[in-house]
Fold this sequence. Notes:
The protein has two helices and five strands. It has helices spanning about 45-60, 65; strands at about 5-15, 25-30, 35-40, 75-80, 90-100. The termini are close together.
Amino acid sequence: xxxxxxxVEVIEFRGRCAAGYEHGDRIVLNGFYIVSxxxxxxxxxxxxxxxxxLSAFTHGASARELGIGFSDDEGxxxxxxxxxxYTCGGTVVFRLRRVDRV
Length: 102
């Protein structure tokens, strides 16, 4: 079974991130494991929004086939927080890049 290294990067905000993510924050995954965090937080709400597609992407499924991008190795997902006027937070958009095999 081949697993891939995935870089998850914050690229856009709509509102304010309640977890404190900032533009450019990155989380690196080797397969199922977080190996590097260039962020103060790892938000469980954000990861719950990514989990089913992130697992397939980590196993080699194409971002295009998953419906999250226009290329095989780069896709986009967002957290579940709808932001104002419904919550005090906001939606964060993440870019997922598959960079190499683990």
